Amino acid sequence: MAQPSVKALGEVGLETGDKIEMEVLELQLRIAKRLDKPAIIHTPRKNKAVITAKVLKLLDRVGIDPSLTVVDHVTSEIADDVRRSGRWMGLTIQPAKLTVEEAVKIAMKYDGSMVMANTDTSTEPSWPQGVYDLEQSLNDIGAKEVARMVVYQNARSFYRL
Ligand SMILES: [Zn+2]
User: Could you tell me the CATH number of the domain that includes residue 130?
Assistant: First the structure.
C-alpha cells in the first residue's frame, strides 16, 4: 500500500458497527493516515444514520484528514452530517441505494463541491451507466459545471490524479 501506484484504501467501513468492525476499521484508517493515502468509507443501507455517526466519530478520533476521506453511499438522510464533517461525499447510483434524481438533488444542494459519483457494482442489482445518467441529468438542467465536478474533476482531485 505504500507504493505510489496504490491510490487509496478501500472501500472499508462499517456494516453493523459492532466491536470487531470498529476495531478493524480503526486499524485500517491508521494505515491510511500513516501512509497519507485517501480512504473510501462504506456506510450501510440499514441504520445508515446511526452507523454513519459512528463512522464520522471514529474518523475524528483517528485524526485522519477530512480531505483524505470520502464517506460513500451518501443519501439525503446523512448528507448534511457528512457535509458538516468536512469529508467528501460518495453518491452511489444503484437501484437499492440512490436514484439519479436523488443524486441530482444532493449534487445541486452542494453545488457539486466535495461530491463524487460512482456505481459501486456489487452483489445487489446494479446500474453500470449510473454515473453517465447523472451527468446527462445534470447537463439537462444546465448544471454543466456541477456535472463536470461530480463525475470527473472531484475524483481527480481526491485521488490525486
Ligand atoms: Zn460499500
Answer: 3.20.20.140
